[in-house]
Amino acid sequence: LQKELLKYKQEARNLQGIKDISPQDALQQRLIQQDASVLQLKQELLRANMDKEELHNQNVDLQRKLEERNRLLAEYKKELCQKDRHLQQHQTKLDEMLRQLSEASYQQVDLERELEHKEALLAHCMKREAEE
User: Which ranges of the sequence are coiled-coil (predicted)?
Assistant: First the structure.
């Protein structure tokens, strides 16, 4: 009986020890899990903040590039307008020169006709003079 009693007491102590340790172990396990979760959340937050900062930097860079391209585009438009004005001026001069050339051609044709007519009259007069 004494042996059995010792055996049951030992078993009771073991059970009591397990019972006493069990909530403490469970609490410690929970704390460890919570710490791991907090650490994981902190890492995710850090990654998210880094990603956010990187996106912000990319956005700033893209804004800068956009402003530069807009500036270049404005310069190109200005140059294009100037070239269009020059082209229009040259086109106007060319049209005027073509008109003058056309008038000169008509005058040349008129003068050539007049010359032919006068040459014919001169030839006719010389012929009549020769006959007289």
Answer: 38-114
